[in-house]
Design brief:
The structure holds 2 protein chains of 2 kinds. Chain A is mainly alpha-helical. Helix content of chain A is 78%, strand content 0%. Chain A is built from 14 helices and no strands. In chain B, the strands form 3 sheets. Chain B has an 8-stranded mixed beta sheet with strand order 6-7-8-3-9-10-14-13, with helices on both faces. Classes of the chains: A mainly alpha, B alpha/beta. The complex binds adenosine-5'-diphosphate, iron/sulfur cluster and magnesium ion (MG). Iron/sulfur cluster (SF4) binds next to loops of chain B. Chain A: This is ABC transporter permease.
C-alpha cells in the first residue's frame, strides 16, 4: 500500500513539471506589457528599464523559467508587480476563504446529491425518479452566474434574508460569515449535486442488480439495511473518487461565483491580477490551483484503493 | 451437462416416502405461475407448477437452462425482481402458511431463518467490501437475539462445519481472497447458520471445478442429513439426482412435465422429454446420452405453442398436442406426467 502511494506520487511529479512549464509559457503569451501597467502614467524610459531589470524581464525566456521555478521551489512565488506584496502571502491570505467556500459547497453537494441519487435509483422508473432527474438536468444546465444573480435578486434584494456580498472572516463574526457564504456555496453546491446525483444513481442501479444484494436479501435483511449498507458501501467507491475530483475543480473553478458574490478568494485574486497584468500573481495562483488539483487527483486514486478491499490487498 | 454414468448403482436403495410425510409436507407448492412484464399475453415463465417436499427429504428440480427453475426458487424465497416478475397465481404453503401471501416484513423474517437459499454464482454472491465473518454474523444477528460475540462464535462454528481450513483466519478474509469452492462453502455456512427448515440450492456446483463439485454436493447432503431439513436442489447433473433425490420434478419451458419418486423417474420415465433426458428412449429403439441430443430448442415465448410446450420437439406430437395443453396425469401413486399419451407404451408408436 505504501509502495502504491509512493509510486503514485512519483507519477504526479512529471505532471506538476509539465503544468509549471505550461503556466509559465501561457503567461508569456498574454498580451500587454506589465511594466507599462506598473509604471502607470510614468513613461520615463529609465524607470521602465529599471523595472524590466528588477523583474528580470530582459532575460531569455528559458532563463526566466528556471529562475522562477528555482524560487518557487524555495517557497518564493515572486512579488506582485502591482502591490509589491509577496505572491505567496497573497495566496495564503485568500486560501482559507476559497477553501471555506469549497468545503461548504461540497457539503451541500453531498447532502443533496447522494440521498437523491439513492432514492431515484431505488425508485427507478417512478415519478420520484423522473422528478429527480428533471431537477438534476436543470441543475446541470443552469449556469452558476445566472443562478447566483437570481438568488441575489430574490433572497437579498426582494426578501432581504441574506447579504448579497460583504465577506466577513469567520474570526470576526462567524454567524455573519456563514450568512454570506450560504448563497455562493449553494450556487456552487447545487451544480455539483446534480452530477453527484446522476453518478450515485447509476452506481446504485448497477450495484442493486448484483448477486450479493440478492444474497443480502436472502439473509432476511430489511430493505433499509440492504440499500444503505450493502449497496451504498459499494456504490460509494466510485462516488468518493468523483467527489474528490469535484472538490479539486471547486478550488480552481469558483472564479465567476466569487466575482458575483464579491468573495475575496482565489477567483477574485486571479481576475484582478489578469486585469492588471500582474504576471507573478497569475502565475502563482494558476500554479497553486493546478498543483492543488493534481493533489486532489492523487488523493482520489489513493482513496479509491483504500475503500476497495479487492484493490487494497492487491497493491 | 447431463451425467448418467453413475445411475444404476445409486438407485439400489429405495427411498419411498412414508405416508405421513406425504400427508404433511413442509412445503406444498400449488399451481405457481410467474410472468414477466412484456412477455406475450398468457405466456408464463413458470406455469402452473406444483410439488411438495417433506421434512428431511430432498426434491430435485431438473430441466434444461431457461426452463424456469431459478424463477421458481426465487419466487418461493420472495427474491424475484418485481417488476418485471409478477406472481400471477398459486400458493406456497409452508407449515400451513402461504409464503406468497405474507406481508413483506414477515417474509423477510423467514428468509435466512426458516428458509434459506444457496445460489449458482459463488464468485459474485458475497459482498466484496465486507469480511466473510461479518457477512455470516450479520445473518445470525438478524434473526437471533444474541450478543455480537456469540454470533461471531456461531459464524466461526459454521465455517468449521462447512470444513473451511483455518476458519479463524477466514473470518477476517474478504471474499476475493477465497476460491470459488471456498466461497460456496461460505454461502452454505451463511445459509445454514440459523438452522433453516428448508434449504433451496440453485445449481450450487455448476460454476465450480468438476473436482470440487462432488465435494460440495457431499457436504450439502451430509449437512442436510445431520439437520433433518428439507431441501430443494436444482441441478443439471442426473448423477447427483440419483445420489441425493427422494423426489424429482422435471420442468420444460416453465411447466412441470413429470414428477414423482426418484426411482420411478429413473426406472420408468413417462414423458417424452424425461425419456430424452434419461438418455434411454426404448420405444425409439436407440439410446440418447445427452439432453442436447433431443433435436431442436425451447421455442421463444412468442412462438410458444398453445398446447403442449414440448410438441415442436416431440416425436409423438399430433394435432391435439399442438392445440390443447395436456393435463398432468397420475400414473402411479405420486408419479405424474403431463402428456396426452402417458403412459406412452399403451398409446403410441414412435412416429420418427
Ligand atoms: N429478469 C428477467 N426478465 C425477463 N425474463 C427473465 C428474467 N429472469 C429470467 N427470465 C426468463 O425466465 C426464464 C426462466 O429463467 P430461469 O428460471 O433463470 O431458468 P433456469 O431454469 O435456467 O434457472 C428464462 O427463459 C428467462 O428468459
Ligand atoms: S402431449 Fe403430445 S407433444 Fe406433448 S409430450 Fe405428449 S405426445 Fe409429446
Ligand atoms: Mg438457473
Amino acid at each position: 500500500m505504501l509502495r502504491f502511494i509512493a509510486r503514485r506520487i512519483l507519477i504526479a511529479i512529471p505532471t506538476i513539471i509539465i503544468v509549471s512549464v505550461l503556466v509559465f509559457t501561457l503567461q508569456q503569451l498574454l498580451p500587454g506589457d506589465p511594466v507599462l501597467t506598473m509604471a502607470g502614467e510614468e513613461r520615463d524610459p529609465e524607470v521602465l528599464a529599471f523595472l524590466r531589470e528588477k523583474y528580470r524581464l530582459n532575460d531569455p525566456v528559458p532563463i526566466q523559467y528556471f529562475a522562477w521555478i528555482g524560487q518557487v521551489l524555495q517557497g518564493n512565488l515572486g512579488i506582485s508587480l502591482r502591490t509589491d506584496i509577496p505572491v505567496l502571502t497573497l495566496i495564503l491570505g485568500k486560501l482559507p476563504v476559497t477553501l471555506e467556500l469549497a468545503i461548504f459547497a461540497m457539503i451541500i453537494a453531498l447532502a443533496i446529491g447522494i440521498p437523491t441519487g439513492i432514492v431515484s435509483a431505488v425508485k427507478k422508473g417512478t415519478s420520484v425518479d423522473y422528478a429527480a432527474n428533471v431537477v438534476a438536468l436543470s441543475g446541470l444546465s443552469i449556469p452558476n452566474f445566472w443562478l447566483g444573480i437570481l438568488l441575489i435578486m430574490l433572497v437579498s434584494v426582494r426578501w432581504q434574508l441574506l447579504p448579497a456580498s460583504g465577506f466577513v472572516p469567520p474570526s470576526e463574526d462567524l454567524w455573519l460569515n456563514i450568512k454570506t457564504m450560504i448563497m455562493p456555496a449553494f450556487v456552487l453546491g447545487t451544480g455539483l449535486a446534480a452530477s453527484l446525483m446522476r453518478h450515485t444513481r447509476s452506481a446504485m442501479l448497477g450495484v442493486l442488480r448484483s448477486d450479493y444484494i440478492r444474497t443480502a436479501r436472502a439473509k432476511g435483511l430489511i430493505s433499509r439495511v440492504v440499500i444503505m449498507k450493502h449497496a451504498l458501501r459499494n456504490a460509494l467507491i466510485p462516488i468518493i473518487t468523483l467527489s474528490t475530483l469535484l472538490f479539486g475543480e471547486l478550488l480552481a473553478g469558483a472564479v465567476l461565483t466569487e466575482q458575483i458574490f464579491t468573495i475575496p478568494g482565489f477567483g477574485k485574486l486571479v481576475v484582478d491580477a489578469v486585469f492588471n497584468r500582474d504576471y507573478a500573481v497569475v502565475q502563482g495562483v494558476v500554479l497553486c490551483t493546478a498543483v492543488g488539483f493534481i493533489i486532489m487527483n492523487l488523493l482520489a486514486d489513493i482513496l479509491y484503493v483504500l475503500v476497495n478491499p479487492r484493490l487494497r490487498h492487491a497493491q | 451437462m447431463m451425467n448418467t454414468s453413475a445411475l444404476p448403482s445409486m438407485l439400489d436403495h429405495t427411498r419411498r416416502k412414508s405416508e405421513s410425510d406425504a400427508a404433511h409436507p413442509l412445503l406444498k407448492v400449488e399451481n405457481l405461475s410467474v410472468r414477466f412484464d412484456g412477455a406475450p399475453a398468457g405466456i408464463n415463465v413458470v406455469d402452473d407448477v406444483s410439488f411438495a417436499v417433506a421434512k428431511g427429504r430432498t426434491l430435485c428440480i431438473v430441466g434444461e437452462s431457461g426452463c424456469g427453475k431459478s424463477v421458481t426458487a426465487l419466487a418461493l424465497m420472495g427474491l424475484l425482481p418485481t417488476p418485471p416478475a409478477r406472481i400471477v397465481g398459486g400458493r406456497a404453503l409452508f407449515d400451513g402458511k402461504d409464503l406468497l401471501a405474507l406481508p413483506d416484513r414477515e417474509r423477510a423474517d423467514m428468509r435466512g431463518n426458516q428458509t434459506a437459499m444457496i445460489f449458482q454464482e459463488p464468485m459474485t454472491s458475497l459482498n466484496p467490501v465486507f469480511t466473510v465473518g461479518d457477512q455470516i454474523t450479520e445473518g445470525i444477528l438478524r434473526h437471533r437475539k444474541i450478543s455480537k460475540a456469540a454470533a461471531s462464535e456461531r459464524a466461526l462454528e459454521m465455517l468449521r462445519r462447512v470444513r473451511i481450513p483455518a476458519p479463524e483466519k477466514r473470518m477476517r478474509a474478504f471474499p476475493h481472497e477465497l476460491s470459488g469452492g471456498m466461497r460456496q462453502r461460505v454461502m452454505i455456512a451463511m445459509a445454514l447458520a440459523n438452522e433453516p427448515q428448508l434449504l433451496i440450492a440453485d445449481e450450487p456446483t455448476t460454476a465450480l471445478d468438476v473436482t470440487i463439485q462432488a465435494q460440495i454436493i457431499a457436504l450439502i447432503h451430509q449437512l442436510q442429513k445431520e439437520s433433518g431439513m428439507a431441501m430443494i436442489l436444482i441441478t443439471h447433473d442426473l448423477g447427483v439426482v440419483a445420489e441425493v433425490a427422494d423426489e424429482v420434478v422435471v420442468m420444460y419451458a416453465g411447466r412441470v412435465v413429470e414428477s414423482g419418486p426418484v426411482e420411478d423417474i429413473f426406472a420408468d420415465p413417462q414423458h417424452p422429454y424425461t425419456i430424452g433426458l434419461m438418455g434411454s428412449v426404448p420405444s425409439l429403439g436407440r439410446r440418447q446420452g445427452r439432453l442436447t441430443t433431443i433435436p431442436g430448442t425451447v421455442p421463444p415465448a412468442e412462438l410458444m405453442p398453445r398446447g403442449c410446450r414440448f410438441s415442436p420437439r416431440c416425436p409423438f406430437a399430433d394435432q391435439r398436442c399442438v392445440s390443447d395443453p395436456p393435463p398432468l396425469i397420475e400414473l402411479s401413486p405420486g408419479h405424474r406426467a403431463r402428456c396426452w399419451y402417458a403412459p406412452l407404451e399403451l398409446h403410441r408408436e414412435p412416429i420418427r
